[in-house]
Amino acid sequence: MNYIEKAIATSVISAAIGGLIGACSAQEPKILINQKMGEHFYNRGLERLEKRDYQGAIADFNEVIRRQSSNYLAYTNRCVARFKIGEIQTAIADCDRAVQLNPKDGDARYKRGNLRIYIGNKQGAIEDLQTAALIYQQEGNMPRYQDAMEKYQKYSKDITQDGNI
């Protein structure tokens, strides 16, 4: 390869590498912006949930999920907002999705357990409450553990007394 051919080859390789670096750099800010905006909507959703603006909270959690489809916390919190406006089945579906995304999310299991109590599914409720209690115990969250265990024991006792087990 002569000098001119080497110079051309070097230029072509440099351009290709530069293009790859540019493409990676162009993607990185988009990802960071998406994460930051997801955090913004998530935090605003929590504020709206606290202020009882359930429709606004749902809209914000929808946006988080649109940007970060694996954000199980957004599903868990959207579940609460949906329950508050009477959308029980979609609230349960949100808890189901949160549990799929993170099986060790005690809050999603606890909330789903309470929703199952609400609709009369005591067997499903006690399974969720027992699992939530175990997760809380492993995390060292004793107040949540005790609360989940109390509900678990109450509904386990109810089922046993009803003769369903």
TrEMBL record:
InterPro entries: TPR-like_helical_dom_sf, TPR_rpt, Ycf3. Transmembrane segments: none annotated. It comes from the Bacteria. GO terms for biological process: receptor-mediated virion attachment to host cell. Keywords: Repeat, TPR repeat. The keyword Signal does not apply. Pfam families: TPR_16 (PF13432). One of its GO terms (cellular component) is cell outer membrane. This is Tetratricopeptide repeat protein.
